[in-house]
Amino acid sequence: MPRRTFCWICCPIALVIIGGCAAFAQISGRFGLDLVARRIPTTLTGEIKLNTPSEFVMLEFAIASNLILNASFGFADLNIDAVVNTAGPEHCVIKAPLDLGDLPFYEIQFDRLSIVPEMWFAVPFEAVNDVNNLPNSVIIPPADIMFIKARVTLSTSISGFSMKTLAMLEDINFPNPGSSYTPLYYPVQSQSFAVGSLVSASWRAQAGFSMSASLGINASQSGRSIKGYSATGSVLPDNFFARIGISGIKLADMNLGGTAFQSVMLGTSFSYRKPPTGTETTSFRTGISLSGRLWDKVSISGSVTLAPFPPKFGGVTLSISMEPFRVAFALDTLELRSMSLSFGTGLNMGAMTGRFSMTASGLERGMTGLSMRLSLSQGIFSAGTSVAFANRAEKFGFASLGSSLTFRFSPAVVTVRATFGRYGLTRAAVTAGVVF
Question: Do 71 and 56 meet the contact criterion of CB atoms below 8 Å apart?
Answer without folding.
Answer: no
